[in-house]
Amino acid sequence: MSRPILYAFHVSSCSWRVRIALAHKKIEHDIRVVNIVNRESRSPEYMSKVNPAGQIPALEVNGNVIAESLAILEYLEEVYPQKPLLPKEAIERAKVREICELIATGIQPLQNPKVAARHSTETEKRLEWTEYYINRGFIALEKILNTTSANGKYCYGDSLTTADCVLVPQVFNAIARFKLDMTPYPKIMSIYNSLMKLEEVKLGHPDNKLS
Amino acid sequence: MSRPILYAFHVSSCSWRVRIALAHKKIEHDIRVVNIVNRESRSPEYMSKVNPAGQIPALEVNGNVIAESLAILEYLEEVYPQKPLLPKEAIERAKVREICELIATGIQPLQNPKVAARHSTETEKRLEWTEYYINRGFIALEKILNTTSANGKYCYGDSLTTADCVLVPQVFNAIARFKLDMTPYPKIMSIYNSLMKLEEVKLGHPDNKLS
């Protein structure tokens, strides 16, 4: 198997999801920086050679490209089973995937700054839009995490899972970018704080510029 | 194992995804109708007993509830391996999941009528919003399907996969609800037309009221 190549950028929250998994599983890989701020990910070259959807992350393995971060996480779990990021029982795996999907479909796409910018040119209206969708998702997430991890450190008890890979960048966005009041979400914050202590999480922090 | 209970509604596109899989795998189940039009899915009872996110579908198995349609599809695939909806090889499974996720994160949440209604009270602006996001996703999808299924009937060659479960309701929405011009998407349309001939797909059609 060839060494995987990750197409990523340091401020991309969906890249961070995958970078946590790669670091956790200690998978050696190369990185190709794709600048999403200057729209390099929408360039004809990137879209024709890597990902027709014009997005990162994308993972190239043996000449094939996998796009979409949750699909990449599942692939890594299947091909690199060491330090698993999914529990063993089907029902437990389902609950972890439910958390991933709640964030990946119910929050992330709607709080995306480009989507908010399409909604309105006014800063205040954009922020109101973003806050609405993050809060709507976090209210549900807080309840779900109180059942999947009543006394646990992470999203599903004390083992790191793909749900944690997806949670971290979303909470980071809420706090650092949108200054969201996290008081109503003590469980989410407690898990986030535990996760931010881990080396595999810190590595992909948006402050660490990729080169 | 107890008989699964699916919480669903006939006009819910995400319920349709799961209903295709249940029908394809011939999994006996019960249905509980949750009316999303009159906001039954947002009732305190449903949100406290079934899904804190206030959404359908949800699948109850042995007293546990799994929410989020892709998580349910993965669960069904693991627990009911008959008539598989994912290919055998990891890279092929990844490509199928990539298609699922492209639609489930990149199109469906953004074209949701409630999101469009939050964007604007004007019908024309809502439609413009919806069309923008469906077209953006379909442009990428058309290219991807031309590689994953250059000569195939369905999204990944000639075998039904979870990608088909997710494609059908999205194309149906585009055509029936939003009257989108599908001329630029011959591959998507050819796959959709093949799929709409299947009994397991027709069963969950929004015209077939659940009771």
From TrEMBL, chains A, B:
Pfam families: GST_C_3, GST_N_2. GO terms for molecular function: glutathione transferase activity; maleylacetoacetate isomerase activity. Keywords: Phenylalanine catabolism, Tyrosine catabolism. It comes from Allacma fusca. Belongs to the GST superfamily. Zeta family. PROSITE patterns: GST_CTER, GST_NTER. Its EC number is 5.2.1.2. It catalyses: 4-maleylacetoacetate = 4-fumarylacetoacetate. Residues 89-211 form the GST C-terminal domain. Pathway: Amino-acid degradation; L-phenylalanine degradation; acetoacetate and fumarate from L-phenylalanine: step 5/6. This is maleylacetoacetate isomerase. GO terms for biological process: glutathione metabolic process; L-phenylalanine catabolic process; L-tyrosine catabolic process. GO terms for cellular component: mitochondrion. Its cofactor is glutathione.
